[in-house]
Automatic annotation (TrEMBL), chain A:
Belongs to the NrfD family. The lineage of its organism: Bacteria, Pseudomonadati, Thermodesulfobacteriota, Desulfuromonadia, Desulfuromonadales. It comes from Desulfuromonas soudanensis. Keywords: Cell membrane, Membrane, Transmembrane, Transmembrane helix. It comes from the Bacteria. The gene is fdnI. Coiled coil: none annotated. This is Periplasmically oriented, membrane-bound formate dehydrogenase, b-type cytochrome subunit. Signal peptide: none annotated. Its main location: membrane.
UniProtKB/TrEMBL annotation, chain B:
InterPro entries: 4Fe4S_Fe-S-bd, 4Fe4S_Fe_S_CS, FDH_Electron_Transfer_Unit. Its main location: other. Keywords: 4Fe-4S, Iron, Iron-sulfur, Membrane, Metal-binding, Repeat, Transmembrane, Transmembrane helix. Residues 10-40, 73-104, 105-134 form the 4Fe-4S ferredoxin-type domain. GO terms for molecular function: 4 iron, 4 sulfur cluster binding; metal ion binding. One of its GO terms (cellular component) is cell envelope. The chain crosses the membrane at residues 232-253. The gene is fdnH. This is Periplasmically oriented, membrane-bound formate dehydrogenase, iron-sulfur cluster-binding subunit. The keyword Transcription does not apply.
Amino acid sequence: MTAARRIATEVRSYHGFIKFLIALVAIGALASLLRFIFGLGATTNLNDTYPWGLWISFDVVTAVPLAAGAFTLGAIVHCFHIKKLEPLVRPAIVTGFLGYSLVSIGLLLDLGQPQRGWHVFRYWNVHSPMFEVSMCVMAYTTVLFLEFLSPVAERFGWHLPLRVLRWLEMPLVVAAAAISTLHQSTLGTFFLIAVDKLHNLWYNPLLPLLFWVSAICSGMSIIILEASACHKWMGQPNEGVLLRTLAKILPWTLGLYIALRVFSLVALSEGPFFDRPGLTISFALEMGIGFILPFFMFVQKSVRDDDRRRSIAAGLVIFGLVLNRFNVSMFGMMDPDKIYYPSLIESLVTIGIIAGHILFFVLIARYFPIFEHHPETVDYTLPDPLRKIGGASPSLSSAD
Amino acid sequence: MSTLDTTKNHAFLIDMTKCTGCRGCQVACKQWNQLEAEKTVFFSGEGYQNPPAMSEYTYTRIKFRDYQKNGQNEFAFYKEMCMHCNDPACASVCPVGAFKKTAEGPVVYDDKRCIGCRFCMIACPFGVPKYEWSKGLPLVKKCTGCHDRVRGGMKPACATACPTAITYGPRAAMIQEAERRLARYPDRYIHKVYGKEEAGGTSVIYLTSLPFEELGFKKVTMRALPSFTWQALRLVPGIFLTVGGGLSALSWINHRRDRIKALREAEETGTESAEPKEEQQ
């Protein structure tokens, strides 16, 4: 049986939903091809009034905080030393790695000159938030890739890389948290330059800090949702006990976010706030349903302990975060006379990217040890066919 | 960026009360920059003006505005173009530094560097940079302030073509002249030199008789825009070191506590094993 036929048989055995996802990704890839053939103007609804649309608002500004689970959990488990959450780390890292890879793809589609992406390395402008974010996203995608290499190395039994990665584990976790703090907040800095463009409800000098805190909230919420979904649909064990611990941290970060948000609105923003009914509703939905309601839900022990209600609360945080990023980067920047809405091709590409994320997650979970991770059972010793290392191996392991 | 001596750079003084609406500047700009013509429609957009907006093919244009004065229909004009800010937002947000404020005054764009992120279009408070939406690999287009002419000692094309309204010269002198006119003919003008303070000062200065908002001038802050993002960005190295250092210290302390605990347990039970070593990791 040739390799191609083996792959075909394998794909045929997939669940119908996975095949559906593959179709969506294929359509998205086709749509993105059209963007390069016919140009941005013909395939998107972007114009000189709205140079940034769905691809920046969702694929970049929203997807980056949605992928924040990896650095948040890495810091919680390894730095704050809540070791029992360890089993959640790998799925979070895979999600993060996929998220950032897809952010990069979204960004390349949106750039006018994607073949010059490397110019960022050659021509530095440290005054540019975009420079900061692109450097960080590239650095962080590399870090996530290295972290993701661990299950790959385990799968194929590469002992030397495993040892190196094990040795690098802590530096990578710290680097991940530091780099993420920078670019998550700098995404907020983007909109500080839109002084008279972004609506007063969202424009305030604390935007970077708010972006960072809400990214942490969404990182934890995504992990809760993801673990619950994996339990429900992928036959994974119920991690409810661990998720309860996360749900205990969430009201603190959510509370901090709400406090900062109220403070920035009352003390740092300038009115008028409620001059545009559409934006007022959007703001009320974002704050009320997306942050304040889940805060009060997570405060209650009964909600934290209940798998279903905990997932709902986490879902609300995600809703709030997505709406917040759209409010800042799209709705709040809107000119009341000229409305932007994404074109069919823009939407298909974004749907393809979301579908791609779920698809690759499921496939990676299928072929690599993502869920059954037990660090103590992994064999980190070096293979020694020539018996040259011999008894020296214990002293080597102390160098870890 | 802001280290440039902006007092010596040149500026446009555009006196809109003297503008006759001949649009010679529009034509001169098209010719000098070799820009394609645009198909126009009568009464497209807000009024008589054509083309309907600045675009990749139109770096400057005269906007028409009709109003009533003493029961008579009157016209007012506004020349739309790049303001060539002293501390330009486009230059500060461009990740590859494709925009540069030149010592002569114009803000120029290097299309060899541009990666096409369009952040300049988001950042510009005047909505100046335009994009080649028709192309597969598009670039930004905007008024060059005729930097090529200015460097050679000439005036910009629009200032050369204008029979009445545009004066071009050192910025300080232009502001002085504007203030002289305001003092001399207080009834003719709205008492304001637009561009003196707007967005931290610009190299295009306007005088007008109609309220600026009525003419379609955008509301802009008086503070130089790059300072808004810089107040957050300047903290980046500090935050990186604080977060990185803090978390490193935290995890070192936590791991050390673990290691000590494991050693103590090993001593108590008297087991001589590799277990503490396992915990080190």
